[in-house]
Design goal:
mainly alpha, 2 domains, two-stranded antiparallel sheet, 4 helices, 2 strands
C-alpha cells in the first residue's frame, strides 16, 4: 500500500478516498437540507404545513423572508465552496502523487530494460566472438593436422596459433561465467 507523507502524518490512498467521500456527503446533505428548507418555506405545494409553521403572511413578509433566505444562501454557498475547492485540491494532489509514482516505476522499468539489453548485447558479442574463435580453431586444427601429416615446418606456428586461440576461448568462457555469477547475485539481491 502506497503511503503519502504530509507533515509527519501518513495518508493511504484509502484515507484520501474516505476523506473525499466524507466531504462529498457533507456537501450533498447540506445542499439537500438547504433546498428542503427553502422549498418548505416558500413552496405553495405545502400550503397547510406552511400556514401551520409560519402563519398567514403578507406579501411584504414573504419578500423580507426571501431576502433573508438569499443572505442565508450566500452563507451556505460561501461555506460549501471551500469544501468543494478542498475536494478539488485533494483530487489534484492525489493525481499528482499517482503520476509521480507511475513515472518512478516507469523510470525503474526503463533502467532495468536498458541494463538487461546491455547485458544481452554484451553476451551476444561474446558468443559471436566465441563462435568465430571456435571456427578459427577448427580451421587451424585441420591445417595443423595436414602440416603434421606432410611433416611441414609450419606445424609449429599453427600449434602456437591454436594455443593462442584456445587461451582466448578460455578467457571468454571465464568472463562469461563471472558475469553470469554477478548477474545471479544481483538478481537475488533485488529479490530480497
Amino acid at each position: 500500500m502506497q503511503m503519502i507523507r504530509t507533515t509527519g502524518v501518513a495518508w493511504s490512498r484509502e484515507d484520501l478516498i474516505h476523506a473525499a467521500k466524507a466531504i462529498m456527503k457533507i456537501a450533498g446533505w447540506s445542499l439537500a437540507l438547504v433546498w428542503g428548507a427553502y422549498l418548505a418555506r416558500f413552496s405553495s405545494v405545502l400550503g397547510p404545513i406552511h400556514t401551520f409553521l409560519f402563519g398567514i403572511e403578507t406579501p411584504e413578509e414573504i419578500l423580507n423572508a426571501k431576502a433573508a433566505w438569499g443572505q442565508f444562501g450566500d452563507f451556505v454557498g460561501g461555506t460549501l465552496n471551500p469544501m468543494v475547492s478542498l475536494l478539488a485540491l485533494i483530487g489534484l494532489v492525489f493525481t499528482i502523487l499517482l503520476q509521480q509514482e507511475a513515472m518512478m516505476l516507469s523510470k525503474k522499468d526503463t533502467e532495468a530494460s536498458q541494463k538487461a539489453l546491455s547485458s544481452q548485447t554484451r553476451l551476444s558479442l561474446e558468443t559471436a566472438r566465441l563462435q568465430s574463435l571456435a571456427a578459427s580453431l577448427a580451421v587451424i586444427t585441420e591445417l595443423h593436422h595436414q602440416a603434421v601429416a606432410t611433416k611441414n615446418i609450419s606445424a609449429i606456428d599453427l600449434l602456437k596459433q591454436k594455443e593462442a586461440i584456445a587461451r582466448q576461448i578460455l578467457n571468454i568462457n571465464e568472463r562469461l561465467t563471472r558475469q553470469a555469477q554477478a548477474d545471479n547475485q544481483e538478481a537475488q539481491t533485488e529479490m530480497s
